[in-house]
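Next comes a single protein record:
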Amino acid sequence: MIALIALLLAAAPAGESTYPAPLKEFLAAKNKDGSPVLSAADRAALAALPEHTRKLIGDAAESMILGNAAHLKVLLSLELPVSTMELVAQDNCILCHSDPGNQKAKNLFSVDPQAQKSNPLLNLKEFVSDVHFRRGLSCSGCHGGKPSDETMTKEIYARWPADDVRHKDRSWIPGFCARCHGDPNFMRGFNPTLPTDQLAKYKDSLHGIRLLEQKDSRAAQCVSCHGVHGIRNAKSPKSMINARRIPDTCGACHADPKHMEGYKLPNGAPFPTTQLADYKVSVHGKALLEKGDLGAPSCIGCHGSHAAMPPAVASVAQVCRRCHAQNGMLFDGSRHKKAFEEHKWPECGQCHGKHGIAKPSDALIGDARGTLCQDCHSVYAKGNPQCNATAAVFRASLDKLASGRSEITGQVEKLAERGLDVEPLSRSLGDLDEALVQARSKIHSFDESTFQSAAQPGNEALAKAREQIAESRHEARFRTRGLLAAIGFMSLIAVGIALKLREMGKRRDG
């Protein structure tokens, strides 16, 4: 063991003799088994710091805020950049509360709370990545006092509600966060682009009404969605409000039957808790969570964030048309618009659903039993045969184009394998695809002439593609006949040459 220690000392980074005296004592500290508390890697990390940073750490050790070598080892394990390490070294709140020898588990900033069985809200690794800390706002920014204070001040105790009160009644949190986030002058010094009306919006939201007016502390507030220590910028994949994490953030409450127990819908039915599961298998959920399409809507895309409310029936279409603008405009001019308003149906949601929206298919359309159109018309349009007739035209036209597309696609592959030029055919196929997209969209007009004007280019592209296929087949047959003729002619020449060679051989032999 003595030899091992001697080896470590021999391998110690040069210049340790210039370290502040308290750091030299830390370097000499031993564990119970006689091994150095600070490993060779720790010593190398310490040596890599600028002299000014080591002095700040030494000053913290001199004042005994940095308690011992084990405490320094905790800070070095964070592998912080120099600028961040200097912030930590000058913040007595962090230094004091990260000392495992000086704090109870409830108040300990730990690099691994689970292993140390300490407060999970006080994860030191998360805290030093917090967006507030990175902007220079540390513990004192919320808790009061100053980073240079060596003892807890009265202000710290006065700023927060009592422990048993603040956990039972969470209504103080929005106003507390708004002390900074609702002050334009203050926020201008950190991020002028951030809005400062979040509290005003929250007060009018369903969450805000339940928390602030009804004193229901189960309602979501700032820390429910943003977290406490370790708050990240929304662009960070680790942020609770990152686009791809929002469904799970909302689902932490809304997918928990126990948490949502007792809440009712306006019609008196129990509040559902299947929204998250439905969303994850929906066309929107798959686009966001599986394909990484950040343009796909999540919960806040339809419900809002700080002003979160269930979209009213009349506003559902306005939410949808933020992305599906053309479909919304077509619907506005359709005969269905009036019918939907009379029945107070939520326009888009009536046909497509809400959280579990599936990718639309042509199977929804038609006059056959089980199609969306017929099921609705059989109840609400019994006296108007034109409704089902129009739906039947839509379906027949789409089936013709879709089956034609499948036919052409198969021919393109076969002709390409035979070495024929399929570029013109591919262009026709592209025109057919565009016509299918437009025709399917024009269904929202619920007008046969409008639909047919979009479908007609597809019919023309299909007819043109079939002509091109016929021409390509003719060319293929011509090439085949030409090849056979060439092979026959070459065979005759070969036979003639063979006979001539035989004749010349007989003459030579004679």
